[in-house]
Automatic annotation (TrEMBL):
<comment type="subunit">
    <text>Homodimer.</text>
</comment>
<dbReference type="InterPro" id="IPR029026">
    <property type="entry name" value="tRNA_m1G_MTases_N"/>
</dbReference>
<keyword id="KW-0819">tRNA processing</keyword>
<keyword id="KW-0949">S-adenosyl-L-methionine</keyword>
<keyword id="KW-0808">Transferase</keyword>
<dbReference type="GO" id="GO:0002939">
    <property type="term" value="P:tRNA N1-guanine methylation"/>
</dbReference>
<dbReference type="Pfam" id="PF01746">
    <property type="entry name" value="tRNA_m1G_MT"/>
</dbReference>
<comment type="similarity">
    <text>Belongs to the RNA methyltransferase TrmD family.</text>
</comment>
<dbReference type="InterPro" id="IPR002649">
    <property type="entry name" value="tRNA_m1G_MeTrfase_TrmD"/>
</dbReference>
<dbReference type="InterPro" id="IPR016009">
    <property type="entry name" value="tRNA_MeTrfase_TRMD/TRM10"/>
</dbReference>
<dbReference type="GO" id="GO:0005829">
    <property type="term" value="C:cytosol"/>
</dbReference>
<dbReference type="GO" id="GO:0052906">
    <property type="term" value="F:tRNA (guanine(37)-N1)-methyltransferase activity"/>
</dbReference>
<dbReference type="InterPro" id="IPR023148">
    <property type="entry name" value="tRNA_m1G_MeTrfase_C_sf"/>
</dbReference>
<protein>
    <recommendedName>
        <fullName>tRNA (guanine-N(1)-)-methyltransferase</fullName>
        <ecNumber>2.1.1.228</ecNumber>
    </recommendedName>
</protein>
<feature type="domain" description="tRNA methyltransferase TRMD/TRM10-type">
    <location>
        <begin position="1"/>
        <end position="226"/>
    </location>
</feature>
<keyword id="KW-0489">Methyltransferase</keyword>
<dbReference type="InterPro" id="IPR029028">
    <property type="entry name" value="Alpha/beta_knot_MTases"/>
</dbReference>
Amino acid sequence: MRIDVVSLFPEWIAGLREYGVVGRGLREFRPALHIWNPRDRADNASGRVDDRPYGGGPGMVMDAPTLARTLDAVAAARGDDRAPVILLSPQGHRFDQAWAERLATGPGFVLCCGRYEGVDQRFIDARVDVQLSIGDVVLSGGELPAMMIIDAVARLLDGVLGDARSAVQDSFSTGLLDHPHYTRPDAALGRAVPEVLLSGDHARIARWREKQALGATWLHRPDLLDRLTLSAEQERLLAEFISERGE
């Protein structure tokens, strides 16, 4: 897989290669990360890529021709793989685990990071396939959302995580939040590890973990449960969790 990022701050995006298991994966080209600075294709000596908005108003707008020339260079480097062009924007679809899984199964994608007041709408209409948002919040640019998307997708690729089961068991991968996790020592901060996790009974442990995942989702993200059709066993586990809490 290949990921291309169009950003005025390429060093920031490149920092992803420096840390953690995803950084190691990027250094090993799983996926291959390429970063493009639109200033390199500006048609002026100063590398300016923005101008005042027509109609007046605050801020500056990134111009369409410079971004289009940058995408032309990206397309030439990628060849004819028809990778989607994604603009990071608060107006976009909400990025979630389902989006991460969808992107992880393709040939890769191109992320365009806006800055200033926004991006010329003509570039969006002509060259952008989809807009994605990380939430109902406005940031100074698309770099942080782009880094989040790269991290979320990269960890789903073969060989990036030390244990492939880690991605499968993450929150949202099954539509539920993750179950609690514990490590040594057996007792810490006045609390003990749940007995079932020390039992060695893998069937009991699996059942406990699913019950805790259902319970965590019920407590913290009940909206996720509304989207799921629970099996009869999951209904029983959730009822047990609620009863054990006395609610």
